[in-house]
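Input record (Table S2, row 217):
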Amino acid sequence: MGLKVYGVPMSTCTTRVLVCLHEKGLEFEFVPVNFLGGEHKQPPFLEKNPFGQIPVLEDSDLTLFESRAITGYIADKFKDTGCDLIRHGDCNEAAVVRVWVEVEAQQYNPAIQPIVYQCLVAPLIGKTSDQKIIDESLEKLGNVLDVYEARLSKIKYLAGDHFTLADLHHLSYTFYFMKTPYASLIESRPHVKAWWEDISSRPAFVKVSVNMKYEFN
Ligand code: GS8
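Output record (S-Hydroxy-Glutathione complex):
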C-alpha cells in the first residue's frame, strides 16, 4: 500500500500536502472526502483524524493529520527525492527553514485566513462578510508582509537561497488571497511580489492550483 491523501481538491490544507507530493515527484492516491455530506465528521473518518478535519495522509500503517506535519514527514522520508524541502544537509539551514515554517503558521496564516474566509467562503455559504474582521486582519497581514519585504530584499526565498517548505506552506492561502480585492498588499511590495510570482509558477503548484476553484464539489 502506498501513499493515500484524503481531502478536497479546493481545500487550502489539502493542497498544501498535494503540492509537497508533486514537488517530490511521488505517486499517490487521492481519496476525495464528501465534505458537504459531512463525511469528515463520521466515525470511519474520525478514526483517521479525531478532530474531523481534512487532510489525512496514510502511508501503509501510518496515519497522519495536520497538513504541516504531513509535509514535514514527506520532506523527511523522501529527502533524497526531488527538491530538498528542509535543507537536510546543513543543520543551520534546516533550523532556519523550521523558523520560517513557524512564521507562516503563527504569523502569516492567522492574518490571511480570516480574509480569505470572509471574502470567498462566507458568500459561498450564504453568510455576509464581516468587514471589521477583514480590516483588522489586513492590518496584521500588512505588518507581516513588511517583514517579508525586508527579508526578501536580501534573499530569494524565506529561508535562504532555496525554495523550501517555508515558501511552499504559503502557496494555498496566498493563491486565494490574490482573488480578493486586497491583492495589492502583495503587489505593492516588489520583493514579495517577485517571490510570489516565482513560487506560484513552480510546476507542482500550477498542477494543483488548476483544481483550486472556490466551489464545493
Ligand atoms: C487545519 C485543517 C482544516 O482546517 C491542517 O491540516 O493544517 N491545522 C489543520 N481543514 C479544514 C478544511 S480547509 O482546508 C476542515 O477540515 N474543516 C472542517 C472542520 O474544521 O470542521
